[in-house]
Amino acid sequence: MEEFRTKVKRRIILASGLTLVAVALGIYAVFSLQNVPDDATMSAGFISGFQFGLIMSIGILSMVTVVKLRRALNDEIKLKVLYNKEHDERLKTIRSKAGQPLLSITSVLMIIAAIIAGYFNIVVFYTLVAAVLAQLAISAGVKLVCMTKM
Amino acid sequence: MKTRIKELRKERKLSQEELALEVGTTRQTITSIEVGKYTASLVLAYKIAHYFGLTIEEVFDFSDANEF
User: Fold this and answer.
1) How far is CA A148 from CA A99, A123, B28, B38, B58, in A?
2) Is B60 in a helix, a strand, or coil?
3) What is the CA radius of gyration of chain B?
4) I need a labelling partner for A75 at 20 to 30 A (CA). Which of A20, A44, A116, A121 fits?
5) CA distances from A118 to A45, A50, A122, B27, B65 (A)
6) Are A90 and B21 an interchain contact pair (Cβ–Cβ within 8 Å)?
7) Is A52 on the interface with B (CB under 8 A)?
8) Does B21 touch chain A (CB under 8 A)?
9) How far apart are CA B4 and CA B62, in angstroms?
């Protein structure tokens, strides 16, 4: 359990760092939005909005993670529940059936690719975002089905 | 697979949450094992049986496993 405690502490540091980066990027985005030229296209606005939304989501999720992990760290039972949840064999099976470990990595990579592609071709951006949403929806659906069956 | 987990829990006035915490799993997994939706691994079956001070065969019903 001590090893897991160290792991949780490391995660808190990582999530705190991520929150700070997201806040910094969010502030920068707010100020840069004010400098949008009058002739800016709707697509350019959509990409900026998407990026801002993504940054805010990462920030909020990281903040929630920090609070959750801090609470677990101060409570032995909550820490054990968290440990059990992460190492639960049934959940591991469900996750692997839904293809989650690999799907999470590919989704993040595709989102990064979509943002970069958005600067060059808006169609590629929309396609990649749609593909990510579709694969996440399918994975969530498979996970739900597995959870009701297992 | 049929098990005696629910019965043993009731005898000891133990909740699913408490049992899950003791054997290193989640409440949902205990529920699934109790209703026969999920078959526990050998390690988890051993942990559950060991917690109740019984053997695996005394907790889990393996009669279905003999059917081919």
Assistant:
1) 17, 37, 11, 10, 27
2) strand
3) 11
4) A20
5) 11, 10, 5, 44, 56
6) no
7) no
8) yes
9) 12
Which A residues in the span 106-145 are in contact with B, Cβ-Cβ below 8 Å? none
Distance from CA of B26 to the nearest CA of A (A): 6
**For A87, which of B21, B24, B32 is closest by C-beta distance?**
B24
Chain B residue nearest residue A90, CA to CA: B29
CA distance A72 to A85: 12
Tokens of A16: 């705190």
ipTM of the complex: 0.85
Closest Cβ–Cβ partner in A80, A83, A150 for B32: A150
Tens digit of each residue's pLDDT (9 = 90 or more) over A74-89: 999 999 999 999 999 9
pLDDT over threshold 70, residue B67 = no
The pair of structure tokens assigned to A55 is 């940054």
Check if A1 contacts B (Cβ < 8 Å): no
> What's the rounded Cα separation, in Å, for the pair B12 and B9?
5
Pairwise CB contact (< 8 Å): B25 & A83: no
Which tokens go with B24?
A: 């290193």
Domains of chain B: 5-63 (1.10.260.40)
Partners of residue A80 in chain B, C-beta under 8 Å = 21
Q: Which residue has the tokens 């039972």?
A: A77
